[in-house]
Amino acid sequence: MKKREQHIGEDIILQFKKGNEKAFREIYEQYKSRLKGFLFHSLPQGEDLESHLQDIFFKLWDVRQSIDEKQSFESFLFRIARNLVIDILRKRVTRDRFLEGLDINIVSKGIDDTLTLVEYSEFEKHLFELIERLPERRREIFKLSRFQGKTYKEIGKQLGISENTVDTQIRKSLSFLKQGMETYVSVLAMIFLGGL
């Protein structure tokens, strides 16, 4: 580790802090392979490693003036990478929790993977629109469960209702959302399979 940092050199780091692009490129070339390896072993399959690698270096550029050249530059850089990985995994867990219970059967609609055909943001946008159409109280309960990760017991205590009522409202929400999303997916399938 120290050999690598000596190779980069304090002078390179100082130049980089001043915004020297040549120094930045040298740092990029020095660490890109190791960082990509770190991302490969830290993230689930299917993640865009090149894009995430670029995000690490964009972040490094943004915070370059906070680098302490007397401290371990490598540790600083890999801390940025670790924070990125944590953020990605947190969002993935949140998304999985968000979609939990919908159990939309994509394959039976003729699409092997909807998210490879449509940007997730579009899928999510439609889902949010459906959520906003839920009755107010039901919407509140659903958001407390899926967005804030609260248990049925916690929701019941906060809203002054029974856990059974919370469960019933969540089930009704999921049923409504599943039906709405299946209709959405069916339309997509018809479009992509030439039915429309």
Quick overview of this protein structure:
The chain has helices spanning 2-8, 10-17, 21-42, 49-62, 73-99, 114-117, 120-132, 136-146, 152-159, 163-192. With 196 residues, it is an all-alpha fold.
Task: Explain what you see.
This protein has 196 residues and is mainly alpha-helical. It folds into 2 domains: 2-97, RNA polymerase sigma factor, region 2, helix turn helix motif (Rna Polymerase Sigma Factor, Chain: A), CATH 1.10.1740.10; 101-192, Arc Repressor Mutant, subunit A (Orthogonal Bundle). It has 10 helices and no strands. It has helices spanning 2-8, 10-17, 21-42, 49-62, 73-99, 114-117, 120-132, 136-146, 152-159, 163-192. Helix 3 packs across helix 4, helix 4 (49-62) crosses helix 5 (73-99) and helix 7 (120-132) packs across helix 10 (163-192). The radius of gyration is 23 Å and the shape is elongated. The N and C termini lie far apart (59 Å). Mean pLDDT is 79; it is low at 1-6, 105-119 and 192-196.
List segments where confidence is low: pLDDT < 50 over at least 5 consecutive residues.
1-6, 105-119, 192-196
Shape: elongated
Bin the strand percentage: under 5%
Broad structural category = mainly alpha
Distance between termini?
A: 59 Å
Count of folded domains? 2
Number of helices: 10
Average pLDDT: 79
Quick one: CATH class of the largest domain?
A: Mainly Alpha
Binned, the helix content reads: over 70%
CATH superfamily of the largest domain: RNA polymerase sigma factor, region 2, helix turn helix motif
CATH architecture of the largest domain: Orthogonal Bundle
- Integer-rounded radius of gyration: 23 Å
Write down the secondary-structure element order: HHHHHHHHHH
